[in-house]
Design goal:
Blueprint: H1 6-12, H2 19-24, H3 44-61, H4 67-77, H5 80-89, H6 100-104, H7 111-128, H8 131-147, H9 158-170, E1 175-182, E2 189-196, E3 204-210, H10 213-228
Antiparallel strand pairs: 1-2, 2-3
Helix pairs in contact: 3-7, 3-8, 5-7, 7-8, 9-10
């Protein structure tokens, strides 16, 4: 099974010397259930390696922090929602090798699979190069999150959390719409409404505001998560 990973390597900002390492980092364990030659091949070992490298990089970067602050930041940054969010920006899902079952049930967008794949890719980069290169890759994508951790909620992707909750409980994807735009173009404030409506249960909705549509959508999703009692901290 030959694939051209050139575009993906551009997304990563790293070109692999050993392309098999990159390929193996993208093989979900379910793939081997349908492809005999991959029965004993998956990204799980690379994921474990990547997890260790990630932990070391973050610990080293925060070496001047107190033990309490270190634990707090690591628990927030080295988390499924954050790593999955990075994977989505890198278009990791597009290149994953999944079973048909995982494909049909939204595996390419599932946070757990994407978060694990990010760690596997990191492990592959470490194996293909060295710690310093892997460290550079991590900090390129996570440094801003580390530097701006003031609270748990600030770095969570509430849109992803709400979408997964909605799909699991209502079988629909939340819908976002612009309700209002306030102020001049250079200082505009957006008001966004998010709705969950499956045509059966009572409609769920809430609103949020922000300086752009993206932040307003996150604010709306955050508000609705709280209203619905979504156990946000269990997502970490």
């Amino acid at each position: 099974m030959k694939r051209n990973y050139l575009d993906f390597e551009k997304n990563l900002g790293y070109s692999f010397k050993n392309k098999e390492l990159l390929k193996n980092s993208l093989i979900h364990r379910s793939f081997g259930n349908e492809h005999r030659r991959y029965k004993k091949i998956s990204n799980e070992r690379l994921e474990l390696l990547g997890d260790a490298v990630l932990d070391l990089v973050v610990t080293e970067y925060l070496s001047n922090s107190t033990e309490g602050d270190l634990a707090k930041v690591k628990s927030m940054v080295v988390s499924e929602p954050v790593l999955a969010g990075i994977s989505k920006k890198l278009e990791v899902g597009k290149y994953l090798l999944l079973s048909r079952g995982e494909e049909l049930t939204g595996g390419r967008e599932r946070s757990s699979i994407l978060g694990d794949a990010f760690e596997a890719i990191l492990g592959a980069i470490y194996m293909d190069s060295n710690f310093e290169t892997a460290k550079e890759f991590v900090l390129t994508h996570i440094k801003d999150s580390i530097d701006h951790v003031d609270s748990n909620e600030e770095i969570l992707d509430f849109k992803t959390i709400l979408q997964e909750y909605s799909q699991k409980n209502y079988r629909v994807i939340p819908e976002y719409s612009v309700i209002n735009e306030i102020g001049p173009d250079h200082q505009k404030i957006f008001e966004i409404e998010v709705k969950i409506d499956n045509g059966i249960d009572e409609e769920k909705s809430d609103r949020g505001t922000g300086k752009n549509k993206k932040t307003a959508e996150q604010a709306a999703a955050k508000s609705l998560c709280k209203k619905l009692g979504v156990k946000i901290h269990e997502a970490l």
